[in-house]
Design a protein that fits this description.
347 residues; alpha+beta; nine-stranded antiparallel sheet; 5 helices; 9 strands; 52% helix; elongated
Length: 347
């Protein structure tokens, strides 16, 4: 006869198992993390494209401004020329008046001393009239041409201003979305650190890697902040790495090829990655918001391995980068001269 008694250890074991399962990140959480990381990465790319378009528009506006200034200078020259022609016209008219230019042709015939004098006078006045007519024609043509140029320049300015305004709105819109995605990404990172459990790699679409050198800076846009050996209340002894001031979600690159030997999500460094490189050196990337690699993965130079954040003992968004002779804290060397010796001058 089968016993109806339950095993006395069965209930506690089931409760422990349920607790462990509840503590582990579920598929929905992983998908959410991947979505936030991917959104930040995509928005960074969109913002970069928009910034390039905006810069191209600004350069086009500068070129148009230079053309407009040249047109204005040409207008000034033409106006001075027209003023000179008008002055010549007045001088010719005054000369004609003083020399009898205002006398009717019939009176000239009567008063002429000889037919030769009459013909000579008539030739002089004809030449003067022709010169005046040509000067007036040139002035009118120049004024019409320059007026047309002014209209074209004004139209081009309006077009460029409209385009720049559209690009600025686009850039601001992306920035707003980016800030929202950064907040979501950092919130998930803080939850992982608080739980002491990494969510695992978020596999982002890698951009084409155009790196040909064996070593690169860990972030594409370099803005150095706290340096190696710095003192201060934030560190127990001295600062053991080089900080890069970057916003949350900035792609972090492997400084060189190697193998991921550590991915952890707790302690003073928050979310961190340590990579072993040929030659016996290690690089560390800390205070991250998300990782795109798992422990044991092989990485290439310039490959995206993480997104920056402000997890752990961090006073604001930045990447903490170390070069070590062992995978552990306490064996760091100054990263800047180390990278400079390998063809990556940053200081």
């Amino acid at each position: 006869m089968r016993s109806s008694r339950r095993h006395p250890l069965l209930v506690p074991v089931l409760l422990c198992a349920l607790a462990v399962l509840a503590a582990r990140p579920g598929d929905d959480d992983t998908h959410t993390a991947a979505g936030a990381s991917g959104e930040v990465a995509r928005l960074y790319q969109d913002a970069a494209v928009a910034a390039q378009r905006y810069e191209a528009g600004r350069q086009a506006a500068d070129a148009q401004r230079a053309r407009a200034q040249r047109v204005e200078a040409q207008l000034d020259r033409e106006r001075r020329e027209i003023a000179r022609l008008h002055e010549d016209l007045g001088r010719i008219a005054r000369a004609q008046y003083r020399s009898g230019g205002g006398i009717p042709m019939a009176a000239r015939i009567i008063l002429a001393d000889s037919p030769e004098d009459l013909m000579r006078d008539q030739h002089v006045f004809s030449q003067a009239d022709l010169a005046v007519g040509n000067a007036i024609g040139r002035s009118h043509r120049a004024e019409a041409r320059l007026a047309g140029d002014e209209v074209k320049a004004a139209s081009a300015w309006r077009t460029l201003e409209k385009r720049n305004a559209e690009l600025a709105d686009l850039k601001q819109g992306i920035q707003r979305k980016l800030e929202e995605a950064r907040g979501q990404l950092q919130g998930q990172a803080d939850a992982s650190v608080a739980a002491g459990s990494c969510r695992g790699a978020v596999r982002l679409d890698q951009p084409p890697i155009r790196v040909t050198d064996p070593w690169v800076a860990p972030v594409e846009t370099v803005e150095l902040s706290a340096g190696f050996g710095s003192g201060g209340s934030r560190w127990a002894n001295r600062h053991t790495g080089q900080d890069f001031a970057v916003p949350i979600g900035t792609p972090v690159r492997a400084a060189g090829a190697g193998r991921v030997v550590r991915v952890s999500c707790g302690g003073a460094f928050g979310i961190e990655i340590v990579i072993e490189h040929p030659g016996g050196y290690y690089t560390q990337y800390a205070h991250l918001a998300a990782v795109t690699v798992d422990q044991g993965d092989r990485v290439t130079t310039g490959q995206w391995i993480a997104q920056s954040g402000t997890t752990g003992n961090s006073t604001g968004p930045h990447l903490h980068f170390e070069v070590r002779v062992t995978p552990d804290m306490g064996s760091a060397v100054d990263p800047l001269p180390w990278l400079a010796q390998r063809g990556v001058p940053l200081g």
